[in-house]
Amino acid sequence: MNKRLIYWVIVIVFAISGFDSVAAKQLLTLDDCLNYGFESNPDLKASEYRVDSAEQNINVFRADFFPSLSSNYSLSTIKSVNSTGPTDADYLDQEGRTFNVRLSQILYAGARIVNA
């Protein structure tokens, strides 16, 4: 008997608390309902994120087709501190400068791009 009484008390409490939400009705048109469903559906949001991720991956793989350019510059100096007598300053004090430019383009990537 106590179990039935507890059951009915719980049902009545839930029914009373549900009346507030029923009283707060909001009339929506079919278009409003569909828009609300499309905006708040977590599965649709997740699929949009997956599509965006796939588009970014396509851009990453397309980057292999573009050329890459790199450059490097270095300077090395040799100075003589201890020199005596008649010597040539150009021979003792030297500077070496190096400037490199590298441009590379993948001509054939083989099955790597096809598999990716």
How would you explain this protein's 3D organization?
The protein has 116 residues and is an alpha+beta fold. It has one domain (2-82, 90-115). The chain contains five helices and two strands. Strands 1-2 form a two-stranded antiparallel sheet. The longest helix is centred in the first third of the chain and has 22 residues, at 2-23. The mean pLDDT is 79.
Strand content: 15-25%
Distance between the termini: 68 Å
- Write down the oligomeric state: single chain
Helix content: 40-55%
Backbone shape: elongated
List the total number of helices.
5
Low-confidence stretches: none
As laid out across the biggest beta sheet, the strand order is 1-2
Count of strand segments: 2
* Overall radius of gyration: 38 Å
Instruction: Please write the string of helix (H) and strand (E) elements.
Output: HHHEHEH
Mean pLDDT: 79
**Total number of distinct structural domains:** 1
What structural category arises from helix and sheet content?
alpha+beta
Main sheet record? 2 strands, antiparallel
Search tags:
single chain, about 120 residues, alpha+beta, two-stranded antiparallel sheet, 5 helices
Short structural summary:
This protein has 116 residues and is of the alpha+beta class. It has helices spanning 2-23, 30-40, 42-62, 89-92, 111-115, and strands at residues 68-78, 94-104. Helix content is 54%, strand content 19%.
